[in-house]
Amino acid sequence: MKAVVKTKRSKGMEFLKVPTPRIGPRDVLIKVKITSVCGTDVHIHDWTLWAQHRFTPPRIVGHEFVGNVKKIGDEVTRVKVGDRVSAESHISCGRCYQCQNGYSEVCRNLKLLGVDYDGTYAEYLVLPEHVLWKNDSNIPDEWATIQEPFGNAIDTVMVEDISAKTVLILGAGPVGLFATGIARASGATLIIVSDPNNYRLAISKKMGAHIALNPRKQDITHLVLEATKNNGVDVVLEFSGNNQALNQGLKVITPGGRISILGIYERRVSIDLNKEVIFKKIRIYGITGRKIFSTWHKTSRFLSSGLVDPGPIITHRFLLSNYEKGIKLMRDGKCGKVILKV
């Protein structure tokens, strides 16, 4: 089969012919139809500091996909040949303290698809049946492949009630854009999006943002306070992984508000805990992965019902062999979500 493989501890990947993987008794062989490009894939391709410490070649990359079950192991009971599936990319052990207490998304023995397991940039993929998700027939393939990052956005937005709230979204990458649509569908009354990329700010308006701001050209603190009658926003959703943006967000949260943080930071961050958190009684949520599988049920309902249309965010489509084009667009910020047809 053909696959995109990270073969060396240096920048780049290779499109290679590799053996089709074999299944065990509880595994499923999947024919991948579509996979999509994530920022994690860019980090691995570019061999960033995170990748150098977390990723060990050789490995097939990728973790977002939709495909059909081709073959099942002897002990598989939850899916059958022909089922259209996606999968939870956080592969938990089911045995540790966190898994036994309903926090499998932070499993102590967590393995990541496309990092610790061979991933989705391939014609075929093998996964244990317990991570598979059978897709609703009303969700088209291009939407089914983005359910995993869509779920990240759901948990960031909905960790607390957001209806009738004012919201600042920091970072308009694909997940921030998903969050914009989710916040609008969930009843947020004012959605402000901040990002230095005008291309993505334009998409945010299509997804329901009331105000789109460029922090390189506009005074975010002044404009957010002006839009909220000097109260500040009830909710900040931080997707940028930028220390300056984080501090801007903390400055404009109304006392008693909350911030959800999904963005990943390259270095340690500096914030004024006394002034911006403790004395304002701010609630901070760290978000990772998705709740397995309750978030997937929410994702499926948002998408199958049409309550959120992610169409404007899916901007580019390539064949898997042209994965380098998708990686470059993601790196340069000249896209929304990029999908690869296998």
UniProtKB/TrEMBL annotation:
It holds the Pfam family ADH_N. Residues 8-340 form the Enoyl reductase (ER) domain. It is an enzyme of class 1 (oxidoreductase). The keyword Metal-binding applies. Its cofactor is Zn(2+). The keyword Glycoprotein does not apply. InterPro entries: ADH-like_C, ADH-like_N, ADH_Zn_CS, ER, GroES-like_sf, L-Threonine_3-DHase, NAD(P)-bd_dom_sf, Zn_alcohol_dh. Its EC number is 1.1.1.103. One of its GO terms (biological process) is L-threonine catabolic process. Keywords: Cytoplasm, Metal-binding, NAD, Oxidoreductase, Zinc. PROSITE patterns: ADH_ZINC. NCBIfam families: PRK05396.1, tdh. Belongs to the zinc-containing alcohol dehydrogenase family. This is L-threonine 3-dehydrogenase.
